[in-house]
Amino acid sequence: MTGRAWAHFGGRWATDLVEVVDLVGDPAALDRGGWWAVLATFEGRLTGYRFATVRTAPLPVVSGWRGPAPDSWRSSLDADGYVARVGVIRRLVEAGQVYQVNLCRMLDAPLPPGADPAALAGVLAAGNPAPYQGVLHTGDDWVVCASPELFLAADADRLTSAPIKGTAAAGEPFAAKDTAENVMITDLVRNDLNRVCTSDSVRVDALLATESHPGLVHLVSTVSGRRRPGVGWGEILAATFPPGSVSGAPKLAALEVIAELEPVPRGPYCGAVGFVDADRGRAELAVGIRSFFTTTDDDGSRRLRFGTGAGITHPSDPYAEWRETELKAARLIGLASAPAGEVRVTPGLENITA
Asked: Residue 284 to residues 103, 144, 158, 190: CA-CA distances in angstroms?
């Protein structure tokens, strides 16, 4: 199922790509009609893919996923580098420059020839089911999303976001800092939606709800509002992107710290991926976490990439934050590295080197 562009989000199978639009230059494209797959990088590149044929259908079952060798993954930061950067952020919090920063590292490995995104999506669906699963194949590169986090949903004039802040291993307690961190980011999301919604409509529908996912539990809050008349997707995305849960607070200051401390771009990781159905007034964009995506190097070699991170506040234990990045990555990297027909959950990532 490679070589031609297609997408599968929200139980809908999209084919026959008819238009690719740079949504930074033409954000109103999403308001003109049609069904769009949308991909945003954390750094702000925003692309819409309009498909002519969209039907309700499950993702076809494709067997024989061929992933990278388990020992071929490398990390943009090792433990020492990550811990040192946590220390920098804690000092910035002490100085009052930021309150919280999401610090991430990128993992990558050679992509075997013939690797099929639909086959990887099937492996993830079986071994790590997630509420916002999807695939976008652009014809060249692809993203396979197994995100647990809603960035933005639209249903007519109602906008909803459900940020995650707080992660623990299944059966373990959350860290003491997680509640305050979730409330902080929930307030940031509320402020973002206030910029495009009527002020009396923005509300916190759920605060600090616990959600269980394979091997993990998260603290999740839900914020919604009614968008103001005449507000289009350009204004909505400008007000809310990038997602607050994977940037920090205040958002602009946190983004400056991220640009300074992280050695490589995140790309689709921590961006957004999903669909906008402009004809029906519906949309569902996930935060691009727990997602694999491909890139092509200058020499033509292809790589599979995956990101993992943690939110850093002043009470953060640097080594606990590093372990959280391992916890979030281990299951997914293990599934993507397993031989076809196996489900292997990697208990640790000790073999991944910078």
From this structure: 25, 15, 12, 18
